[in-house]
Amino acid sequence: MSSTEHFDVLIVGAGISGVGVAFHLQDKRPDSSYVILESKDTFGGTWVTHTYPGIRSDSDLYTFGYRFKPWVGAPIATAQEILNYMGEVIDENGIDQHIRYHHHISDASWSSDDALWSVTSTNTQTGETKLFTANFLWMCQGYYRHDEGYTPDWDGMADYQGEVVHPQTWPDDIDLEGKDVIVIGSGATAATLVPNIAGDCNHVTVLQRSPTYFRAGRNVNEIADQLREVDIDEEWIHEIVRRRILFEQHEFTKLAKGFPEEVKEALINDLREHLPEDYDIDPHFTPTYRPWRQRLAFVPDADLFEGIKAGKATMVTDEIDTFTEKGILTKSGEELMADVIITATGFHLSVLGNIDFTVDGEKIDFADTVTYRGMMFTGVPNMNWIFGYFRASWTLRVDIVADFVIRMLDHMDSLGARKVTPQLRPEDQGMEIGPWMDPEDFNPGYLMRSMHLMPKSGDSPRWAHTQDYWNEQKELPLVDLTNDGLVFD
Ligand SMILES: Cc1cc2nc3c(=O)[nH]c(=O)nc-3n(C[C@H](O)[C@H](O)[C@H](O)COP(=O)(O)OP(=O)(O)OC[C@H]3O[C@@H](n4cnc5c(N)ncnc54)[C@H](O)[C@@H]3O)c2cc1C
């Protein structure tokens, strides 16, 4: 093992979260030394892991982009456009000199005597291990495993003679020309993939167990375009358009919660104009859950529905009974034939990067902790996890949590404290403890499968990830650090 290096702040992951917090840290605490350790050979996280055809955001980039760097393109962006944008942030701010690629973190241990984290990394090219120490650990490793997507274990999979592909590990050399393809799943990934492969394939069948909400619209922002026409500064456009989008999203969220049936009907009705006349919309596009219990899949320029109209793509809403030699037998008895089956069936949730954590020699099981505001954990000192929003753009939370952490670090300096640990206050003892997220509120498959591994929540925003940007952006800057369940010593 080579010699130990020390930094004030150690950031894990060079995705959109890690790069964002690095910007804020060096902007507001220029005297803090920091390093970003990243296991891949480049920055971007999600946007380099996923390389399937058409890979793009489903949020608009005015809000998925950082608040400090104007977005100047179409609202829905390709992975490459997002990487270009992040690359500019890195270059313009000299963040590149702080990133160490090929550094995979396997364990992190906290010592209260030294008030330090010790973090072990393994070089993914050379196998060399290295020890880092840091006063503060900023976990920006995302929320799912990057090496492998989630594929259920269906009966008969071994008998299937064709190719099975997960979009997260998309083979560069796959040839879909003239092939019959089944895509299992109908979330955002399937909605992106299908229109982007349908032209090559002979036919694509989208096999979904249950329908998803879709929203179709043009991939433009008219306000931004109008302001550009009259030469308004991009900084202004970014701010104005962000505020407008956030306002509209807030109104929509309130409406979806207050009037779920009406919103459901409106969403489904909107799709009619994009589907063939007399299309049987009910079985395929009428979800059983309330709008916004799962992420709403945006379909830019209605491209998914073009494929359906053109007869290149067909929806089948049914359950898989078994794989066969030639395809899939559904529970209703239909055999769907395919040369290739694409399993757009989601992710494996990863709790804090599957890193082994110890605090003063005790192994941490995060399921035994309670989250402080969806960003820190009881009994775990000097550590923050950037876990963004699902219903709003993830990155909105990067900016506001970074502000909060920096305020907290400044507060520690002013107290001369070396340690900050979330701890339930006397008045919090006995509060009701529940899962990380209320399944009644938000229930995508990857979260439901692994919720038991996640930290717990209490009964107030102080002890939960509320997924509510609109409240948090007002509340977080006002939190009284001296009486909020944070112990400084
Ligand atoms: C296909 C897809 C599309 C999405 N689209 C949107 C969208 O439109 N809008 C939205 O808000 N959200 C979207 N999301 C959610 C998305 O993941 C987040 O918005 C955001 O990109 C997460 O950024 P991150 O930096 O927190 O994590 P990630 O992008 O997951 O990056 C984490 C980084 O940490 C590194 N890392 C992890 N563990 C370790 C370790 N142990 N040691 C060293 N490095 C490590 C990883 O290699 C990776 O580079 C999408 C997700 C997917 C999968």
Approximately how much beta-strand content do the residues carry? 15-25%
Helix-and-strand structural type: alpha/beta
Fourth-tier CATH superfamily name of the largest domain:
FAD/NAD(P)-binding domain
CATH topology of the largest domain: FAD/NAD(P)-binding domain
Number of helices: 13
Task: Tell me which ligands are bound.
Answer: flavin-adenine dinucleotide
For the termini, the CA-CA separation is: 32 Å
CATH level 1 class label of the largest domain:
Alpha Beta
Helix content: 25-40%
CATH architecture heading of the largest domain: 3-Layer(bba) Sandwich
Shape: globular
Total beta-strand segments? 23
- Low-pLDDT stretches are none
What's the average pLDDT?
95
- Oligomer designation: single chain
The description of the largest β-sheet is: 9 strands, mixed
**Radius of gyration from the CA trace?**
23 Å
